[in-house]
Automatic annotation (TrEMBL):
It is found in: Cytoplasm, Cytoskeleton, Spindle pole. SUPFAM superfamilies: P-loop containing nucleoside triphosphate hydrolases. Its main location: cytoplasm. Keywords: ATP-binding, Cytoplasm, Cytoskeleton, Isomerase, Microtubule, Nucleotide-binding. SMART domains: AAA. It comes from the Eukaryota. One of its GO terms (cellular component) is spindle pole. This is Katanin p60 ATPase-containing subunit A-like 2. InterPro entries: AAA+_ATPase, AAA_lid_3, ATPase_AAA_core, MT-severing_AAA_ATPase, P-loop_NTPase. The keyword Nucleotide-binding applies.
């Protein structure tokens, strides 16, 4: 007889700045599981044999606290292709750590433990082939759509916002800005909104730095309204960080 089990391992390959870590935390919260956020600095050690022990302890903890989710962030920094590089001189400790991680993931596939492994990578084509075989599901988290970009801009720059007792008003054409930010990731849009919100503040600083005279008294200082033109000017000087790689992610 042949039995098929539910896939508990998946890879999320995403352009930079699209919120892969936030998405992983949301998955763990919705599934009501214990969340382990793992990066290269968590399991890589300079001491001989420690990296393999850390990997083994991680999976033992995940089994003990099951149901649990292990999130491997920036997977390419831990599981790059073995034997590839200048002089093919990969360190022995790195190879042992990768082998232990593969063995532990094989152990999950053969057991009934409710441990879900979710990995994220900005460079999925650099991952080791043995790891790709174990990552049964591959999910592309693409750049935000026009509607999503409009919602993001409206979230960061609503018509009226009050932060720290300072009221900021905006008059924006969200539909136009959604079209103008094509190819921008979530972090790019946040940066654009922050820069646009700082423009009225910079104008106040410029007014205060100018020398005051009787003919040129101190003006009435107040925050100006952020307009669509302000954001368009910021967009002209802020280029998208992942637009050129979008097609490569889709093809992979």
């Amino acid at each position: 007889s042949v039995s098929l089990s539910v896939s508990l391992v998946s890879l999320s390959h995403v352009p930079p700045g699209t919120g892969k870590t936030l998405l992983a935390k949301a998955v763990a919260t919705e599934c009501n599981t214990t969340f382990f956020n793992i990066s290269a600095s968590t399991i890589v050690s300079k001491w001989r044999g420690d990296s393999e022990k850390l990997v083994r302890v991680l999976f033992e903890l995940a089994r003990f606290h099951a149901p649990s989710t292990i999130f491997l962030d920036e997977l390419e920094s831990v599981m790059s292709q073995r034997g590839i590089g200048p002089g093919r001189g990969e360190h022995e400790g790195s190879r042992r750590m990768k082998t232990e991680l593969l063995v532990q993931m094989d152990g999950l596939a053969r057991s009934d433990d409710l441990v879900f492994v979710l990995a994220a990578s900005n460079l999925p084509w650099e991952l080791d082939h043995a790891m790709l075989r174990r990552l049964e599901k591959r999910i592309l988290v693409d750049l935000p759509t026009t509607e999503a970009r409009q919602v993001m801009i409206q979230h960061w720059l609503p018509p009226v916002s009050n932060s720290g007792g300072v009221e900021l008003r905006t008059q924006l054409d969200y539909s136009l800005l959604g079209d103008k930010t094509e190819g921008y990731s979530g972090s790019d849009i946040k940066l654009v909104c922050k820069e646009a919100a700082m423009r009225p503040v910079r104008k106040i600083f410029d007014a205060l730095e100018n020398p005051q005279t009787e003919k040129n008294p101190l003006p009435n200082i107040k925050l100006e309204t952020v307009t669509t033109e302000d954001i368009l000017e910021v967009i002209a000087h802020t280029k998208p960080s992942a637009k050129k790689l979008s097609q490569k992610y889709t093809a992979w």
